[in-house]
User: Which sequence fits this backbone?
């Protein structure tokens, strides 16, 4: 029985430890990279592009095939000498052949280059999906950290309000304040409790958001760590718009993939044009057969003797010169050129969207910085005002209403400062992403 209790205690402790796991930002990102469906799908597309590349790369190798057939002839039947005889017969043939391209207008070369670029672009697509997911996780992560601090403020507000209520009761018992002050302070306690419940609900919703983004099955026991790097932000400076744009233009996975696909279209055009050029290939083969005549007038040699005697080896070079194919190659070339125009327009559009996004993020960061500094100054002033009101209330020089108003201004300013702080940090992180 003691062993049973010990096992239960160990299992309970293990589950409790797992349930109380606190996730860091890097752990959240690493987990999302391994389990996110969009990333897994992009990896499937990458694997498909890799197989396409390998197929064209190996197309230079010889092809070898074997064949066998069994046929029956009635009336005129073929013979081993290549003439027909007047007899019913059956024949068995076996053969093996090989072929290898020597020159095909550089079609395979250009197609291999095209598929290699398609593979590289698909790898960049995977990086782009990971990039966007990391930004999303960061947004959700910081929202959880923000709501945790907001809940902490609400808890502090409740504790302070309850302490204030106790003081009011003591002052009422001493006859220094009216009974209405007791009811007013009790109402403030109820309001603080309601605020705490709202803060707790907001925290749970933000936890649900990140848990769903990570594709975890439950929110039970999930918590995140508040990194030290998110606390001190005064030393950060905003990078310039132009430097951010120029760096992102060359290093953003989406832009890199777009440039690769543009280069790919040039090779596609060259591969299409190769249909105008002659092609040269090498071929070789061996075949043999067995002929069995049904008439008793003819002697049938033994099976293995015929297979030995009827063998034939061949090899040679085949040249194919295109002359006219109903203008099909011409129109295919023209259509492939349109893909170049389409990709150039896509890059131009992507550049404009990238510049627009960076401009928006830059000015959002500037506004968030100003908002944070103003909110922090307001909060510092509200702290001094509340301290003065609290001392005045204890000395009987201020009313409970004045104290409550000062306290409410303090917590409101602290909440606004906290919100501005995390918004500023998020905007900074977004700009840092574009400069990585």
Assistant:
């Amino acid at each position: 029985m003691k062993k049973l209790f010990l096992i239960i205690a160990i299992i309970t402790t293990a589950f409790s430890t797992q349930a109380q796991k606190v996730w860091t930002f890097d752990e959240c990102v690493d987990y999302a990279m391994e389990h996110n469906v969009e990333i897994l799908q992009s990896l499937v597309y990458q694997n498909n592009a890799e197989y396409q590349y390998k197929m064209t790369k190996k197309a230079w190798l010889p092809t070898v095939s074997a064949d066998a057939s069994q046929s029956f002839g009635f009336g005129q039947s073929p013979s081993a000498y290549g003439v027909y005889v007047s007899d019913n017969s059956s024949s068995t043939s076996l053969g093996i052949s090989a072929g290898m391209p020597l020159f095909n207008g550089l079609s395979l070369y250009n197609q291999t280059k095209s598929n290699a670029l398609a593979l590289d672009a698909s790898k960049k697509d995977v990086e782009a999906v990971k990039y966007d997911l990391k930004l999303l996780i960061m947004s959700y992560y910081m929202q959880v950290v923000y709501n945790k601090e907001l809940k902490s403020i609400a808890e502090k507000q409740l504790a302070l309000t309850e302490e204030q209520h106790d003081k009011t009761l003591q002052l009422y018992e001493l006859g220094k304040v009216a009974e209405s002050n007791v009811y007013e302070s009790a109402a403030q306690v109820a309001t603080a409790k309601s605020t705490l419940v709202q803060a707790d609900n907001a925290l749970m919703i933000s936890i649900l958001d990140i848990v769903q983004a990570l594709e975890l099955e439950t929110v039970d026991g999930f918590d995140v760590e508040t990194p030290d790097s998110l606390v001190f932000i005064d030393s950060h400076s905003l990078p310039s718009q132009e430097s951010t744009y120029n760096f992102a233009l060359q290093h953003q996975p989406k832009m890199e993939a777009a440039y690769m696909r543009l280069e790919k279209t040039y090779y596609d055009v060259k591969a299409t044009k190769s249909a105008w050029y002659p092609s040269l290939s090498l071929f070789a083969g061996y075949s043999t057969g067995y002929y069995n005549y049904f008439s008793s007038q003819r002697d049938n040699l033994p099976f293995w003797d015929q297979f030995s005697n009827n063998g034939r080896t061949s090899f040679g070079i085949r040249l194919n010169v295109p002359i006219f194919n109903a203008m099909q190659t011409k129109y295919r070339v023209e259509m492939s050129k349109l893909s170049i125009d389409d990709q150039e327009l896509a890059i131009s559009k992507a550049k404009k969207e990238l510049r627009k996004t960076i401009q928006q993020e830059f000015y959002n960061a500037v506004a968030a910085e100003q908002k944070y500094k103003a909110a922090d100054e307001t909060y510092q002033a509200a702290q001094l005002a509340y301290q003065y009101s609290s001392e005045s209330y204890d000395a009987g020089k201020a009313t409970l209403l004045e104290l409550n108003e000062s306290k409410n201004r303090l917590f409101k300013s602290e909440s606004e400062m906290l919100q501005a702080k995390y918004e500023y940090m998020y905007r900074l992180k977004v700009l840092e992403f574009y400069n990585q």
Observations:
- The two ends are 59 Å apart (CA to CA).
